[in-house]
């Protein structure tokens, strides 16, 4: 039981009088698992680590603290924790019963699909099964109330649509079918603007990651173009530093970051249009092969539109000190000297490279994931780290297979009259 040092608020009445001993022990045990430093209070650091350990996105930590911290102290006492969790679980139980159509105390696959349909959310049985497996810890292919309650402990809302959103998007790595195809969004997510928030978040992350890896990217371009003259990493890096100094390692990064927004927007728009064509008049989910076709089309379409920026990026990365004063100056000089066609040099091998990359990435990822599931059927879903390893391996295989085309593309982009 909490003492006066455990929080400045008065413990709720139900905590003192109405809480069964079994429930008290369960909640105290859960509190202690989250309270990593053992000081009797849960702060943002404790909760962030707890979410990380369970594979839930750490962004939910702040929301949990805000909703359970009654006295706004910035952390949560045992009394506050029990009060919040008890109220939260009461609402979760009501939602569970609304989905349990046959009232047998479990939610099975058919009930889940029916519930989604009643909410106006079309879901393929394969996706529904994967969502079910996220909660299903005992491998029975149905969800008990305890599994439902435990999985949704950190969900910030008990509204059924918010629960479904949390269910589908709370994990680090969505249990999707393809790591390279644009994200799918539900009708509600499209209407509420979640799609553009995902694009913005991905764009910001892309800007940061590209900026950090820009020196390696410029080094790669140099070796691709001048590989016969400079075959060693160290000598190539030394020559770049001698010619332009440390800041020269980031040449071409500005336009590389600049093209993220139009490329992402065009790819998303093309992907949505391709899905509509493939679906026809039905509202079914796309199969894995249809997603590959739609994703390849989207990638090809976006590359066709923004390809001149790709050529500019390569030329700016290879430029000598003082050759171009800006992106606009580079475009103007290249056009004046070489004409419009120069901005599409290497376009064909670039377009051809999209198909083997996306196809091999998809095939290897699915093969590794399915092999693990066949060998470990009793363990439920693969863990986040395992899925990340599958994604990294598949992406690497795709890049290796398509690299010859990427090399040809870069050399053609670098050619000038």
From TrEMBL:
Keywords: Calcium, Membrane, Metal-binding, Mitochondrion, Mitochondrion inner membrane, Repeat, Transmembrane, Transmembrane helix, Transport
Keyword Mitochondrion on entry: yes
Domain EF-hand: 22-57, 87-122, 123-158
Pfam families the UniProt entry points to: EF-hand_7, Mito_carr
Domain of life from the UniProt record: Eukaryota
Subcellular location: Mitochondrion inner membrane
Record-linked PROSITE patterns: EF_HAND_1 (PS00018), EF_HAND_2 (PS50222), SOLCAR (PS50920)
InterPro entries (alphabetical): EF-hand-dom_pair (IPR011992), EF_Hand_1_Ca_BS (IPR018247), EF_hand_dom (IPR002048), GDC-like (IPR002167), MCP (IPR002067), MCP_dom_sf (IPR023395), MCP_transmembrane (IPR018108)
Family the entry assigns: Belongs to the mitochondrial carrier (TC 2.A.29) family.
Name of the protein: EF-hand domain-containing protein
